[in-house]
Amino acid sequence: MANVTVYFATNRVAQGPTTDWQSYGADIVTPTDPSKITYATAFVQGTDLAVEGSGTIAAITHPQAGGFQTAVTQDIIGSGKNILLFIHGFANSFVNSITRAAYNREWFAASGVNAADTTVIAFSWPSLGQFIAAPPYLLPDDYLRDQSQASRSAFHIASFFAGLQPIMAQVRSQGRRIFLLAHSMGNFATAVAVESWFTHNNPAVTLFDEVFLAAADERWDSFALPMEARLSQLPRLTPRISIYYSIRDIALYLSVAVNLIPRLGHDGPSHKADATLYPPARFRILDCAEVSDYDLWNPPDASHQYYRRSPKVRADIARVMRNDPTLSGGLIQL
């Protein structure tokens, strides 16, 4: 078992002391005020890769509104590691989002690839954190409520990216790399944040060296939309994007039923064989449906969690983190 430091930002309203994990519920702060975002450090104990949902928050320190405290910024810059930014999916409470970030950090570090041993920074948007065991989200109202909160988090997540820019620039100047990992509805939140970034006249600049979109609960035509919509402008913020999808993902079947449009993480992006729309040098589109090195049915949403349950998928992500020069692009069957 491991003890993990998770740096985080959240646009959840704190109903009590910002050092108390129980303070952060499912309400959202003022949607257009970045000074309301809380930044802090969480210490997670007991993360065990063999135990689903392991880890508890032992303490939260250095809370500050609007940005990390100087000491925390210095810790991040001085870690000597690559940076992993993580945006969680639906049905995650605050505790879920932080302990999941800790698990992910340990999961990728366990690949044995030095580049995948990262410093993790999570953004916790105000999902309800309710999970109906088999299958998830039997209640469409809960799902749609989470989707609405993800959408309302657009400005906050874009502000989070902007606030991290000076830190990321210093990290990159030391020869280290910045990764963005979005899972499930975290991709929906990322899409609206990218929209917000450009509608608020922020420049096209490399924010992330690599972006991983895992089991994306986002519309499948997100990259093909006009007018700077959804993820169509994400390539202006990163040189390469890896999209992991699986038609066996049970959670996304339910999402399709609610949204009435195919999902990016279910059968991949629309027109995925179009090398003009998805240049292989910049896009990796990975079909994970045949990956069978994890228990697909335990827990019930395991098929939605393959990015952190399959050693084969982990190995692929670690290769990208290592910037393997032999890495293939385009359509890939894992």
Question: Which labels suit this protein?
Answer:
12 strands; 29% helix; 8 helices; Rossmann fold; globular; single chain; 22% strand; 334 residues; ten-stranded mixed β-sheet; alpha/beta
Kindly give the count of domains. Answer: 1
Which structural class matches the secondary elements?
A: alpha/beta
* Topology pattern, helix = H, strand = E: EEEEEHEHEHHEHEEHHEHE
In round numbers, the mean pLDDT is 94
**Rough outline:** globular
CATH class: Alpha Beta
Give the name of the CATH architecture.
3-Layer(aba) Sandwich
Tell me about the largest β-sheet: 10 strands, mixed
Span between termini? 29 Å
Radius of gyration: 18 Å
Oligomer: single chain
Sheet with most strands: strand arrangement: 5-4-1-7-6-8-9-10-11-12
